């Protein structure tokens, strides 16, 4: 079955040999041959963009960029509906970062106790700190049981109760009866590898359908014409050819951008390519300042250490060997909430009491605890510490620092998965463009993501994109004409980077950006720190013009691909820090020291009677939409209101309140 | 249909003939030219591969049928020796083989059923959500 997919990829190629070969090709005057095999024999070669970069044109009904949980679900949903679908991915599908999501997936199935999806709706709205769009949350929580049952029917081996129903456990701030009924048990899992199993189930299922996979094709840009998305242009990493995928519908599912920070749990490939493609197309990204951190991530590796370590008696110490949490939280000490711990650690590091040669992290000490207790209560921790930190946990402390785990923000969509912009006070759909997964922001997570909700987000909105496309279009529709030189700017950029001969290497610029983001746009956010960070990021953005690459080839040029990824990361990073600087309140994951409270249209801590509603410009319960000028790196911000009404009267919307747990 | 054993033995005899000829040639002619010997071997090899390929093709279809049909009835048809690295002599600094095998820290439950919660097919080891986040081997997976 896999051979079909492999065969559907181009095996041999034939191009029109160019008369004027570029200087670099003079050495080998061998003519390159390009023949297009595969199911779609009408993929044409054209030199509409450049004679030096011949382009292969493909035509499909729909293109999905990214093959993680959301991308695969969208791709085979479309193939199932009869659309001729292409899935363009820079990684093999089972290598996407979804495979690392080992936690569970929430759904109100009601197997352990009586449950209602409206209570899940309430928990998610509250968790998002009332920044989530309630219609999208309604859609997701209502579809959740059906989505989990569908996955189970695809063959995903959830763990079971004695009766054979799916076992659900308590996790992630879920409650019963709108927060008044105690802890809810909603989290379904597959042993200890839910994300891995999800991805493999979806991949296996997708092979039943006729999707064409273009694996290890790096998507460069969207092909936009007159505000409509007409496809994607991509670089085939294996042989350096450029491919244009023309399609009436494009779905972006490229994942998050954890790699803008020095310490993150994401894979090296989480570079926010989709967000950057949308930014370069002149469209906004939403709520990028909301980044979810975890206090104790291992320095260098990015792997997170559980809070149970501190729960069992582990302590955080600084360079002076002091248990600094006693100063910040005298009662709770190391057991304070995650954001307090993260902020305290960051303040210690900023004030110069960090450890290590760069003084940029702190230590988590466990060696004062009896080793048998550690081994019995936290089995496996010595193995983890040895593999990821290289320390013996019974003798040395583990180096830790606050680490990025998830990006709540992304490409703004409505609850159907269609990408929207905000013009004249109204949401306007961008025709032909959809987004789902971590890269999309239908805004179900709002200002803070609840545990086990993101895997649900993937499958529900991946399916939603496929359903919306199936409703609005029919397979086999004729494509609107596209200019023959569409994608010219992307190829020019590619050529410029390939022969870049400045003074700074890609890795240096990337490290500068990561360190700046970690120091200025991490957990500890105040006005001057953020302003300083914005200026630094602005100047680092300018150093991109002076970049130096070394590999001049076109076949599997990882230097080129890493530089393209760095350009994408930079766009995400500048938007994140400028949006964070502009938002003068604390909400969810965005916590500021100088503006500690939430600023809503009413003060919800007091009765609403007699309060005057603040105008839109003066409160912060709104989504940030950020645009970037790619040449200068200048960010412009606009705002869009939160959708406060649910889809229909099946579920009452939750009016805002103070969030307290 | 050739059985594997017979094809092997026939190839063996074929090659032994080849080698014999070469040696014979060596003995008789005094010094056998290198290229001559190589070309002779090459010709023999090409012939042999054609010979063996045909045999193996038949043989592989045979075992494929056998495998699908007779898998349940168990037992390997071939008494192939398991591939094993040659053991190094045990010295003072060598670790004992049993120690070096990594022990699984989190043990499987009997029948994969967790005795307290009666969960079938669930995560091994202590309850992952006991500290409020999803913990496994000291790592926080989700929170």
UniProtKB/TrEMBL annotation, chain A:
It is a peripheral membrane protein. One of its GO terms (cellular component) is mitochondrial inner membrane. FAD binds at residues 66-71, 89-104, 273, 438, 454-455. Its main location: mitochondrion. GO terms for molecular function: electron transfer activity; flavin adenine dinucleotide binding; succinate dehydrogenase (quinone) activity. Flavoprotein (FP) subunit of succinate dehydrogenase (SDH) that is involved in complex II of the mitochondrial electron transport chain and is responsible for transferring electrons from succinate to ubiquinone (coenzyme Q). NCBIfam families: sdhA_forward (TIGR01816), sdhA_frdA_Gneg (TIGR01812). Belongs to the FAD-dependent oxidoreductase 2 family. FRD/SDH subfamily. This is Succinate dehydrogenase [ubiquinone] flavoprotein subunit, mitochondrial. It comes from Cirrhinus molitorella (mud carp). The lineage of its organism: Eukaryota, Metazoa, Chordata, Craniata, Vertebrata.
From TrEMBL, chain B:
Residues 93-122, 130-143 have a biased composition (Basic and acidic residues). InterPro entries: SDHF4. GO terms for cellular component: mitochondrion. Coiled coil: none annotated. It comes from the Eukaryota. Residues 74-143 are annotated as: Disordered. Pfam families: DUF1674. One of its GO terms (biological process) is mitochondrial respiratory chain complex II assembly. PANTHER family: SUCCINATE DEHYDROGENASE ASSEMBLY FACTOR 4, MITOCHONDRIAL. Belongs to the SDHAF4 family. This is Succinate dehydrogenase assembly factor 4, mitochondrial.
């Amino acid at each position: 079955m896999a051979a079909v997919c492999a065969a559907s990829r181009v095996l041999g190629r034939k191009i029109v040999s160019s008369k004027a070969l570029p200087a670099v090709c003079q050495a080998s005057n061998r003519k390159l041959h390009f023949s297009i095999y595969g199911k779609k024999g009408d993929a044409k070669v054209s030199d509409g963009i450049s004679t030096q970069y011949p382009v292969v044109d493909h035509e499909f009904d729909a293109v999905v960029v990214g093959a993680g949980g959301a991308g695969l679900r969208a791709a085979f949903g479309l193939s199932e509906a009869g659309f001729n679908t292409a899935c363009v991915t820079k990684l093999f599908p089972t290598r996407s970062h979804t495979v690392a999501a080992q936690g569970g997936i929430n759904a109100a199935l009601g197997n352990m106790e009586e449950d209602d999806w409206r209570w899940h709706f309430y928990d998610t709205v509250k968790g998002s700190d009332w920044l989530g769009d309630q219609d999208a949350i309604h859609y997701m929580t209502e579809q959740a049981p059906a989505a989990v049952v569908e996955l189970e029917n695809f063959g995903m081996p959830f763990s079971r109760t004695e009766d054979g129903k799916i076992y659900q456990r308590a996790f992630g701030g879920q409650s019963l009866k709108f927060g008044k009924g105690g802890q809810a048990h909603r989290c379904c899992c597959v042993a200890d590898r839910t994300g891995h199993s999800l991805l493999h189930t979806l991949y296996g299922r997708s092979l039943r359908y006729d999707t064409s996979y273009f694996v290890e094709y790096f998507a460069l840009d969207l092909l936009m014409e007159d505000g409509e998305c007409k496809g994607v242009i991509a670089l085939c990493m294996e042989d350096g050819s450029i491919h244009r995928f023309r399609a009436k519908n494009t779905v972006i599912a490229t994942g998050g951008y954890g790699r803008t920070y020095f310490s993150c749990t994401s894979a090296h490939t989480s570079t926010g390519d989709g967000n950057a493609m949308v930014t370069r197309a002149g469209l906004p990204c939403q709520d990028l300042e909301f980044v979810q951190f975890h206090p104790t991530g291992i320095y260098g590796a990015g792997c997170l250490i559980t809070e149970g370590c501190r729960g069992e008696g582990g302590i955080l110490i600084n360079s002076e060997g002091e248990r600094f949490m006693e100063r910040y939280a005298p009662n709770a000490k190391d057991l304070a909430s995650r954001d307090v711990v993260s902020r305290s650690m960051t303040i210690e590091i900023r004030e110069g009491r960090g450890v290590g040669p760069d003084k940029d992290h702190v230590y988590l000490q466990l060696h004062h605890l009896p080793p048998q207790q550690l081994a019995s209560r936290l089995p496996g921790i010595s193995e983890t510490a040895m593999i990821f930190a290289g320390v013996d946990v019974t003798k040395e402390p583990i180096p830790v620092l606050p680490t990025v785990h998830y990006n709540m923000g992304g490409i703004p969509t409505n609850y159907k998965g269609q990408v929207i912009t905000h013009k004249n006070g109204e949401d306007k759909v961008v025709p032909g463009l959809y987004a789902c997964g971590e890269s999309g922001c239908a805004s179900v997570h709002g200002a803070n993501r609840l545990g086990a909700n993101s895997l649900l987000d993937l499958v529900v909105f991946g399916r939603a994109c496929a359903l919306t496309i199936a409703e609005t279009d029919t397979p086999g529709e004729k494509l609107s004409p596209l200019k023959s030189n569409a994608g010219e700017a992307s190829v020019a950029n590619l050529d410029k980077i390939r022969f870049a001969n400045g003074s700074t290497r890609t890795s240096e610029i990337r490290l500068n950006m990561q360190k700046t983001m970690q120091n200025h746009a991490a957990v500890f956010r105040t006005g001057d720190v953020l302003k300083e960070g914005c200026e630094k990021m602005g100047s680092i953005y300018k150093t991109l013009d002076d970049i130096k690459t070394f590999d001049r080839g076109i076949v599997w040029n990882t230097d080129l691909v890493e530089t393209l990824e760095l350009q994408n990361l930079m766009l995400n990073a500048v938007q994140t820090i400028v949006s964070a600087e502009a938002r003068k309140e604390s909400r969810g994951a965005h916590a500021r020291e100088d503006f500690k409270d939430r600023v809503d249209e009413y003060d919800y801590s007091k009765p609403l009677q007699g309060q005057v509603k603040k105008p839109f410009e003066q409160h912060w319960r709104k989504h940030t939409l950020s645009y970037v000028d790619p040449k200068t790196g200048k960010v412009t911000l606009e705002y869009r209101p939160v959708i406060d009404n649910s889809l229909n009267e099946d579920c009452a919307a939750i009016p805002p309140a103070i969030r307290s747990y | 249909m050739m059985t594997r054993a017979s094809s092997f033995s026939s190839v063996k005899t074929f090659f032994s003939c080849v080698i014999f000829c070469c040696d014979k040639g060596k003995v008789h002619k005094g010094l056998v030219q290198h290229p001559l010997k190589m070309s002779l071997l090459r010709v023999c090899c090409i012939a042999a591969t054609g010979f063996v390929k045909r045999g193996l093709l038949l043989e592989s279809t045979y075992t494929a049928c056998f495998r699908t049909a007779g898998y349940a009835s168990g037992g390997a048809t071939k008494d192939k020796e398991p591939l094993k690295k040659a053991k190094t002599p045990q010295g003072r600094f060598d670790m004992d083989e049993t120690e070096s095998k990594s022990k699984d820290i989190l043990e499987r439950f009997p029948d994969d059923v967790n005795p307290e919660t009666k969960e079938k097919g669930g995560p091994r080891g202590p309850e992952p959500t006991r500290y409020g986040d999803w913990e496994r081997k000291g790592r926080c997976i989700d929170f």
